[in-house]
Amino acid sequence: MLCLKQQKVNTLSYKTVSANSNTVDKKWLLVDAEGLALGRAASAVASLLRGKHKPNFTPHVDCGDNVIVINADKVLLSGQKWKQKQYIRHTGYPGGQRTLSAEQVHKKNDTRLVEKSIKGMLPKNKLGADLFRNLRVYSGNQHQQESQNPTSINLNDLL
Hints:
With 159 residues, the chain is α/β, with parallel strands linked by helices. It contains six helices and six strands, in the order βαβαββαααββα. It has helices at residues 38-50, 81-84, 102-108, 112-119, 126-132, 155-158; strands spanning 28-32, 66-70, 86-90, 97-101, 135-137, 151-153. Strand 1 (28-32), helix 1 (38-50) and strand 2 form a beta-alpha-beta unit. Helix 1 (38-50) packs across helix 4.
């Protein structure tokens, strides 16, 4: 026989858990960008910085990890993007718009391409500025965060 009595549901088990600065578990991750496409690598790193891979992701909280990107000088661009992709900036004076190709930006500072592409994929507010501070980009194999014991992560598994 079926019991027609209604069972009381424990509503405490259905509460949404919202992360805050005290409950967030931040780790150090090491990403090797050698041989990866710039945009694909940047979107995966931006997702790690935001914390979207964590089950307690909260959009308005810095719940992402600290990310170290090495070999940023060996990132790939497809097609004719080295010559055709333009990076535009403005000096602030009338007629002060300046453009550089990706090749020129890479020659000037070989980590700038990776930094700009990741920064463009973060929120355009104070949270995005805070998240960008959790990123370290290096052009070679060596980095200065050895004491943090970063966990090496393969971006091909995330893509």
